[in-house]
């Protein structure tokens, strides 16, 4: 049986309503039904049923003689009767009334919205949904799905908590203990989607379809209003269903016999989005492992690490216990690896049970907005280059990809996964990104490390390298890395940073040095070599070229497994959380207060001067190494004794930057930079557009307007710039900035937490 909702054709209604002529109008129909409703005899019920059949025939008919063909809405008298019909004790009348609601919802947009905006009809529809009469509840579910076709309909159903009744109904319906699913592929706008076929009763699938549509329409506030117990129980059901669906995604869709399956209109990405949304608050995810991270990585000597090595020099932290990782922060992942026995079993299980980690803009703070943009791709299989790379290097410099035929992002299929064993045997390394949203234990470690360094999140990648091989070529990273050796041994070479500037996140890390050039070896001469065993940690500052391999002598292996598996914890310093970012926050807050309190500078002059000061800070940040360093003001250090050290250090750094801004900021340099940017049509404010997250209501001055204002009143603007610079550097309050900076960091962390929790729900590990 196919998954189209069943509705009798208009011809069937024409037969049962032949006693009404085509000249009948809505007023006559209303009068007949009103009189019949007053008659409690069976004859009255029969008259109502005939009248409803006729009305339904008119809604479905394409005949020009239909009483509704020339109308876009139902007349008010008929609308007023619908709530009574929906609540009728007679199942046939209630079902017919519900079918009329559904047909009217599909008749026209205007009629759909007319139905949706009638509170009594919507309430009656939701009440009918919870009816103990199966036929009525199913008819109500069909009507809901028809009303969903407009945003007004969906919003009104959410307003009256239809989602609660739907979840209640789903949880009450007995489910098959041996239920299974299948997928059927369909093309739409050049993309392939999968519809889910069920070996379940049609009723529960209609309920499921309706609840998925509403969940995927919810705001965060509406999701939060769903009773927690409902959310928990529905999540349990959806998680089991997703595990079955995901297996079929991995092996590909196959057309199953319609005799056994109900082919629904639920796509796999619809189901994945609902699971993601219900999991965002992460009530079941583990808490941050701050103490475990500190103990495992820094042996409680965080202050020494910050003073002597952070963003300065590499550091090897040996596994003091010289034992396995059973007491380590990564113990759960290590145990999972060992439980799979062989490398091939581990690799196959991993690739078959993971979903693609959807890319997200670093400044995106609205998870619902992100989901709306990414909803077509949620829950898809791993994408080559985006999620995974299969690569090897033969000469330290040039990488070879196993799947070299993939020019564009490509979703791995079952055949590709089978080929991965061949790749491993041929010396290829598997690099899998986003482990922090694939394993709950790793997610907790990632969160702990983020808190320790005062950053929104920490990315975690996995590298599985066969013996006598090198995966990635020698390279520099735009982020600091902690290499955590989980299994086997690996030899690392770390070269001196060839550039005095720390590379910034997302910028070309090799723009000042060519590692492939003839004199590249001379530029990075004097490397340090480290041999990592199980449980060892290696810190590599951003910008330091490095490479790693499993090529070593037998005595160096020391009985370890020949292959190597390590995790890299990437501490990415995003623009708002560099020291330059902290100064932009301070300037924004000070400028806002200055505009409110200035007694002799006009509002426009202060606004222009503050915008020019933001450019001045950017110019200093481009050349001063301190501005590129990580701001640790948001750090939650352990042990607490470190707190005083960090506070003193951070305050001192801020005062140093203010002194530099006061002495080195030059109006002429700022003006010429603005002039060149206008000529080249560049946006100088683009890289710190995130400042708007401090105040969503703030308006940003367009660069052309800023330039024209400055040109027209250059002398006044220059004087205002000098005054604003002096006052800012002398009046800004560090503690006030810390407070608002922490609020900004909290917004970023909240968004990342929601994303990670949602993605963890889609992991079938």
UniProtKB/TrEMBL annotation:
Cellular-component GO terms for this entry: nucleolus
UniProt-recorded name of the protein: Bifunctional lysine-specific demethylase and histidyl-hydroxylase
Ranges of residues in domain JmjC: 406-578
Enzyme Commission number: 1.14.11.-
Cofactor requirement: Fe(2+)
Compartments where located: Nucleus
Gene3D superfamilies named among the record's database cross-references: Cupin
Domain of life: Eukaryota
Family named by the database record: Belongs to the ROX family.
